[in-house]
Structures are given as structure tokens and as C-alpha cells.
Design goal:
single chain; 205 residues; binds S-adenosyl-L-homocysteine
Length: 205
């Protein structure tokens, strides 16, 4: 039940008990294709179809850790994949809206979330670069695919003081970057880690 991953994440220096509890409570074997279930507890990306991976769990944890979520937050996630990150967010926040461009991946994610008892996350099929204006504003936004800049609609739909984490494409690597919204604009807080993400594909990317 996510214990190996908890140990890995703890050893990387993430000590927030709420985050560790969320990882412990989220069996990753439910969030990978059945043929890969045997290596779900390894801290590696795993292919989920359409040339997309489900991200490395420790990278997901680092991005979520940066957001410092409370159980009153409403979160927008772009790039649901198989829903692993969605499940962790759902443990830490009040409500999660997640957008995935591939309908079959979204369908898998819904089933996976239901299988582990997550009821406060909604998966929507569409272009996440437009955000979800009908559910805005969001206290936090996490983007799981890389682009050169943060899509403008996501900035608009973030509350003043809200946090956004996203990999910014920078040549060889992507740089996962944490921002906060101040005076209507994004201010960079810090870089979280370099990583490799799939490209964010959409109108505002
Ligand atoms: N958060 C996932 C990461 C999946 S990989 C996890 O926990 O593993 C990134 C995902 O982003 C892919 O499923 C891809 O289809 C999706 N994606 C890319 N561009 C998108 C867009 N504009 N809107 C919604 N989803 C997008």
C-alpha cells in the first residue's frame, strides 16, 4: 500500500505527514495498466498509452509538496493520465478538478479513482490549457505537462495568493517551477526540480 514509495519520498526530504499519509493511502498498482502492476511500487514513470507516461511518484510528490495544500483548497490539475496524482491531490484538498485530453485515459482515471474510494475528484475530458472556467477560481493549479509558459487562462482562474506548479520547457530539461499569484500576476517563488515531461498540447500552450 504505497509503503516503499513513502520511504523513498521521506528519504528525499519530504516530511509533511499529510503528504506521506496520502502516498501511503494510495496504492499505485491501481493507477497503472494491469500488465505493469508488478512494478507499480518502483519510483519510475510507467507507460499508459498514447505515448504518455504516468509520472515518477517522487516527482509527483515534489510538485504536490510545493503547493502546500490545505483540506479547504479547490485544486485544478491539467493532465490526469491514469489519475495517480489526482488521487493524492484528492487526499490533501477539499475538491479536485482534473482535465485530460484523451477520453480513454480519463475513463481509466475515473475507474481507478472509484476503485480506491476517491469521491471528491472530477475528471473532465478537454483541453486543459483553457482551464475550467465553470469551476474557477482555484486555490492551487498543477500542470503535468511542459510548455514554454503558463497558459493565460490558468493564471486568470487562480485566486489571488493561489499557487501554481508547472514544468517550464527550457531546452534539454523542463524546470518544474512554483509560482504564486500576486496583484493579478504570477510571481516565481522557486524552482522545484529539473525533470522530463511530455509536451502540453493545447490552444493556450
Ligand atoms: N498527472 C499524471 C501525468 C500524466 S502524463 C500522473 O499522475 O501520472 C501527462 C498527461 O497530460 C497525459 O495524459 C496527456 O494526455 C495530458 N495532456 C497533455 N496536454 C494536455 C492538455 N492540453 N489538456 C489536458 N491534458 C493534457
Amino acid at each position: 500500500m504505497g509503503r516503499n514509495l513513502v520511504e523513498i519520498i521521506r528519504q528525499m526530504g519530504m516530511t509533511d505527514p499529510r503528504l506521506l499519509a496520502a502516498v501511503a493511502a494510495t496504492p499505485r498498482e491501481h493507477f497503472v495498466p494491469p500488465r505493469s502492476a508488478g512494478r507499480a511500487e518502483q519510483d519510475t514513470p510507467i507507460p499508459i498509452g498514447h505515448g504518455q507516461p504516468t509520472s515518477q511518484p517522487s516527482l509527483v510528490a515534489q510538485m504536490i509538496d510545493a503547493l502546500m495544500l490545505t483540506d479547504e483548497d479547490t485544486v485544478l490539475e491539467i493532465g490526469t493520465g491514469y489519475g495517480y496524482q489526482t488521487a493524492l491531490l484528492a487526499h490533501l484538498a477539499d475538491r479536485v478538478y482534473s482535465v485530460e485530453r484523451y477520453a480513454d485515459l480519463a475513463e481509466h482515471a475515473r475507474a481507478n479513482l472509484a476503485a480506491v474510494g476517491v469521491t471528491n475528484a472530477e475528471v473532465v475530458v478537454g483541453d486543459g490549457t483553457a482551464g475550467l472556467p465553470e469551476h474557477a477560481p482555484f486555490d492551487a493549479v498543477v500542470v503535468s505537462a511542459a510548455a514554454a509558459a503558463v497558459p493565460a487562462p490558468l493564471i486568470e482562474q487562480l485566486v489571488e495568493g493561489g499557487r501554481l506548479v508547472m514544468p517550464i520547457a527550457a531546452g534539454v530539461a523542463d524546470i518544474v517551477t512554483l509560482y504564486a499569484k500576486r496583484h493579478g500576476r504570477l510571481e516565481q517563488q522557486r524552482t522545484v526540480t529539473p525533470a522530463q515531461f511530455v509536451p502540453l498540447v493545447g490552444k493556450h500552450a
